[in-house]
Amino acid sequence: MKIISYNVNGIRAALKKGFIDWLKAASPDVICIQETKAHKEQLDVTEFENAGYPYHYWFSAEKKGYSSVAVFCKEEPKHIEYGTGIESMDFEGRNLRVDFDEVSIMSMYLPSGTNSARLDYKFNYMDEILAYATELRKTIPNLVICGDYNICHEEIDIHNPKMKGVSGFLPEEREWLGKFIDSGFIDSFRHLNPERQEYSWWSYRANARANNKGWRLDYAMVTEPLKDKISRAYILPEAKHSDHCPIAVELDI
Fold first, then answer.
1. How many other C-beta atoms lie within 10 A of the C-beta of residue 102?
2. What residue ranges define each of the domains in the chain, with the CATH number in brackets?
3. Is the pTM above the cut of 0.90?
4. What is the pLDDT of residues 66-84, one digit of tens each?
5. Is 244 assigned a catalytic role?
6. Please, which residues bridge with residue 59 across strands?
7. What share of the chain in percent tops pLDDT 70?
8. Is 244 annotated in some ligand binding site?
9. CB within 8 A of 153, min separation 6: which ones?
10. From residue 84, how far is each of 56, 99, 131 by CA, in Å?
């Protein structure tokens, strides 16, 4: 099973940049989208269906043009879970899960901490999603939570590890991501690529992408029972529909 995760920073903008042709070529079994910035009714969904994804699910923020996640599948899941049931998280449309017989896959968009109020919200979300995932694994042990975590975990994950006081690389954020992994998850990319320095996000400023001054903010976190099923995990920087690029994990299931 090939799973791709992609923060498209606006699905409508990505469509204008050739997203559908890229999707056909990449051909994942499941693709998790973050930051669609759209409600389903604002889109011509036949574009996704004609690309080979007849099963597409959308969980959007109450506020139009903001946040929101989606999952496209080639095969029909047995269950779709919209949100987490936690109102403080769900009104911004940040979590959507599809369940198959052998694995469940969640598209997650963790908040950024652009100012002090949003940073407080981010820390609250981090606490709640860790508790939620810990409880969820009791009934769904084979779980992949992929998406934009808005945090670089280690110094290898950022072009300038001397950067201080910036949300996304704060000590508290990095400590939380370590705690999240230690709770029973595997960072699939780092698991298979312990020394590879690659990024999944670049600022639009100062030619950051051309100079590869990036951050690895996007992860495919896989629960421990699936560890031996991870066959590949990689980043796809050649896809340029967004300030992020897609990441992928392949599981032998």
1. 11
2. 2-251 (3.60.10.10)
3. yes
4. 999 999 999 999 999 999 9
5. yes
6. 69
7. 100
8. yes
9. 174, 177, 178, 181, 187, 190, 216
10. 18, 14, 11
